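Q: I'm writing up a methods section and want to include an example of the input and output format. Could you take the sequence below and give the corresponding predicted structure tokens, formatted cleanly so I can copy it straight into the document?
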Amino acid sequence: MNLLTLETNLNNTLRPQYFHDFCPNGLIVDALGNKMREVHKVVTGVSLRKELIEEAENRGADVIFVHHPNGFWNSDKNKCIDNSQHGNYVRMLIQKGISLFGYHLPLDAHDSLGNNATVFKLLNLEPTVDRAESHYDSIRLWKKPERFMYDNIGYGGPGTITKELLDSVFPKGYQAFNFEPGLTYDVAVCTGSAASELDAVIDRGYTMLVTGEVRESTPILAEEYGIAVIAAGHHRSEVFGVQNVADYIKRIGVDAEFVDIDNQI
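A: Here is the clean output for your methods example:
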């Protein structure tokens, strides 16, 4: 499969055109300037970093797929190819002939490959549409700039949450605030960083938020508003989507593997 066909498959599946995001989505670096060249192996990882690029080279990959395209965020003001994260990564990728794909919010929100959907499935919860909407696609393809909608945090439903279940989903650990194991909760899932959306979760009637990062105020709000919060870490709550993408790429005929370079945050 050539790079252009892989790009087409990924765009058709993840549909980045429907998302307002903090970074580019899709093919970010075409290292050889030739989309017709064959792709022999893809390495997927949560975040772009020097170690991941080196691992991809060691494993014979010519493409990297990440969820967090570090160095390419819209907030990275300095796009000069100098001694910056952006410049160093561009140089490394081009020198090694490794192209880069990145999909951020489209991967969070995908209904089968996505981080949120996978966590929901692993928690043995049946996905439901947001109570404010009548059709799931209206959430997944929502174009409003508020993160609550287009990152699919409204994805939720009821289920019994035990410590053993959480331990199995997040084996590297998690923080639990105002959580009583074995109770039935109405669960909202937003992997990564959703502490800023806790008020919105509460307003919509959920009794548990499963996310990655939290703020200093999160335990206070959880106690005062009677909502449970599970925080598994930004990286560790988002290993699922890139694992799924590696499996998907293998199914469409290209060798692929997920490389987990852990990050405690």
